[in-house]
Design a protein that fits this description.
lipopolysaccharide transport protein A fold, mainly beta, 11-stranded antiparallel sheet, two-stranded antiparallel sheet, 198 residues, glycolipid transfer activity, LPS_export_LptA, single chain
């Protein structure tokens, strides 16, 4: 994480991310709850490992920037993106007195994908509030479980409960322009008659 340091220069994606979040605030519609079962049993106490093509660390600000095919892994959850920025604190160990970094927040931008063994979610921007165990995905969000798909503008996943909350979408389930509504496509089990025919 701290190797190959270079002087930090603000990256364009950070400004774009802030503008995008402001824009989406204006178009959100009432929330629709859904189950994010794949995240329900996620180990939020597991360490987070990050690898990327390039990294920059801002020691004075307790921040680090990763760019280029970034992967952040925590237990069985993987976040991939073009850029990732993390914020951390440096608490001291009560026994040794030594300080070590503890991640507080992870911001991802550029083709963001969040994947578990059972589910996958895609969007333009993701924010992982580590202490609160909340993951927010913004911008043309798509959540997939098997053959079932839900589209929306913003998805909030509570890793404590496995509950996902989706805001209204600007894109229909077929990719067409929507009207600020959450859209979904769900597979249904075969009818009893179909079972009898078999």
């Amino acid at each position: 994480m701290y190797s190959g340091l270079k002087k930090y220069k603000p990256l364009p994606f950070l400004k774009a991310a802030a503008l995008s979040l402001c824009g989406f605030t204006l178009i959100l519609t009432p929330l629709s709850a859904l189950s994010a079962q794949g995240f329900r049993h996620h180990d939020t106490n597991a360490p987070i490992d990050i690898d990327a093509d390039h990294s920059e660390v801002l020691y004075n600000d307790n921040r680090a920037i990763y760019s280029g095919h970034v992967r952040a892994r925590q237990a069985d959850m993987t976040i991939t993106a073009a850029y990732v920025r993390i914020a951390y604190t440096m608490p001291k160990n009560s026994k040794t007195g030594e300080a070590s970094p503890q991640m507080q927040r992870l911001d991802a931008s550029g083709g963001v994908t969040i994947q578990t063994p059972d589910e996958m979610a895609k969007g333009e921007i993701a924010i992982y509030d580590v202490p609160k165990r909340l993951v927010t995905l913004v911008g043309h969000v798509e959540m997939v479980r098997g053959d079932s798909v839900v589209h929306g503008a913003r998805l909030i996943i509570d890793l404590n409960t496995g509950k996902g909350t989706m805001d209204g979408s600007l894109v229909g389930s077929d990719g067409s322009q929507g009207k600020g509504r959450v859209t979904g496509h769900f597979v249904v089990p075969p009818s009893n008659q179909d079972n009898k025919k078999q």
